[in-house]
């Protein structure tokens, strides 16, 4: 017998978190298919056996999951278009990793911790999409090892970033180049928007237009924050706005690395 169980996932804001959920449930034999509704922050799972193991797996992601309801159904759930999904994941993976490299290099060139931190945020999303490629239409045997390595790597970079921010708060370090901060962050903002458009077209669902607004309000905060910091650097003649934004984004990266380690477990 097939059951369709609905879970609320309060912290599922973006397609990258949807991919983490799909990876977490993808190797469970009882799970036949699932559908994520980002605007409503719910996940519908078609499965056999009890839903308790599914909820336990969702809990490991730290996205505040809860059981909503379950019912017996005849259908096995929505069919997956693995070939198309793989193409979409490759595109958004490439976009995120390109801007990771661009922001990292220009961040060091411009002496901007905000840009460096934002580059790690782009890398975190890119890693999620890259991990999802292992899960599409096949086994996910390497998923946990890669997730664990990626989580520790992101965490180490975030800690090093915090150390550098603290060092610069003491008065060492050069003034960031606000022009580079604004221009590169604006380009990264466009890159994030492009990823969302690609994901919306793949879903072909009007609900994901609303989802993009939710996701943009979260993922693009870092981009907008660096732009604002660049303007404040110009207005105040101080590098503190860049350091403050950098510290905030490093904190977001650290939280993402912790979530990745939970996925690995």
Describe this structure in words.
The protein has 265 residues and is of the alpha+beta class. It has two domains: 2-73, Alpha-Beta Plaits; 82-264, no CATH class. 68% of the residues lie in helices and 11% in strands. It contains eight helices and four strands; from the N terminus they run βαββαβαααααα. The chain has helices spanning 15-26, 52-59, 82-109, 113-135, 143-169, 178-203, 207-236, 240-264; strands spanning 2-9, 31-37, 42-47, 65-73. It has a four-stranded antiparallel beta sheet with strand order 2-3-1-4. A hairpin with a 4-residue loop joins strand 2 and strand 3 (42-47). Helix 5 packs antiparallel against helix 8 (240-264). The longest helix has 30 residues, at 207-236. The radius of gyration is 20 Å and the shape is elongated. The model is unreliable at 206-213 (pLDDT under 50).
* Strand arrangement, major sheet: 2-3-1-4
| Shape descriptor | elongated
Structural class: alpha+beta
Low-confidence stretches: 206-213
Distance between the termini: 29 Å
Main pleated-sheet profile = 4 strands, antiparallel
Helix tally?
Answer: 8
Average pLDDT reading: 82
Order of helices and strands: EHEEHEHHHHHH
**Rg computed from alpha carbons, rounded to a whole number of angstroms:** 20 Å
Strand content: 5-15%
- The tally of beta strands, per DSSP, is 4
The portion of residues assigned to helices is 55-70%
Q: How many domains, as an integer? A: 2
